[in-house]
Task: structure prediction
Amino acid sequence: MIRRHLLPHCYTADDELQRLGAAQQPALGPVIRCLVWNILKAKRASWPTDFQELVADRDLALLQEAVFNAPSDALFTDSQRLQWIMARSFRHPRTLVEHGVKTGCVAAPVEQHVYMSPHTEPVSQTQKLLLTTLYPLQGEDEQLLVLNMHAINFVSVHKYVEQLDQLSAALGPHDGPVILAGDFNTWNPARLGHFQLVAAQAGLTEAVMERQSRLAHMNQHLDHVFYRGLGLRSVESLGHYQSSDHAPITATFERRRDPI
Result:
């Protein structure tokens, strides 16, 4: 039996989301340059250098396995270009480092919300997260919905699908442009199929890229980018970066307005 004092302190959806740094612009677009990356808790020595290089020209960044109360804090709290919203899942009982997901943007969100997975990971008893942020678009009344997801991992497909129900609920009320990205833990065909169905029902298109599979990920791709109401200029998986066990993904979108 695991002693209770050795378990992480878990947060709830009622805990306040953290705001770090300052936004440089009042709105996003018309070109939106994105970074999507599971950063492996920023624990490898080369990570700060790689991160600063990758995020330097990005308008939007979605990070999973993000941390706070950690050596990397200043990269977020001192930012004068991106404002970061962090949703926390748990705090480590020994190091007190907080773990979760972070979304950073050159514009401040007008709304933000976190969904905690209905089920927990075995042993650690921690939940995975879906963080939604809503951003203004330059010269438009419509707003961009950004969904940063880290899907639950070591559970049955049935429990996995129950977290996807939260994703459907978050997408449902919004009929404008969308970017959905993150680590979806799609390490078998059943998981991937359920995820693709949710995306298709919401009218989302996957940004397909060339990339190498990884044995540690059961030779499946775990990280994905989906979009709606935007034009995809480019998407790339940067497998040469070694500061995480996940390759960072960069994608560039443009807002295409219907002709009058």
Residues 4-254 form a domain with the Deoxyribonuclease I; Chain A fold (CATH 3.60.10.10).
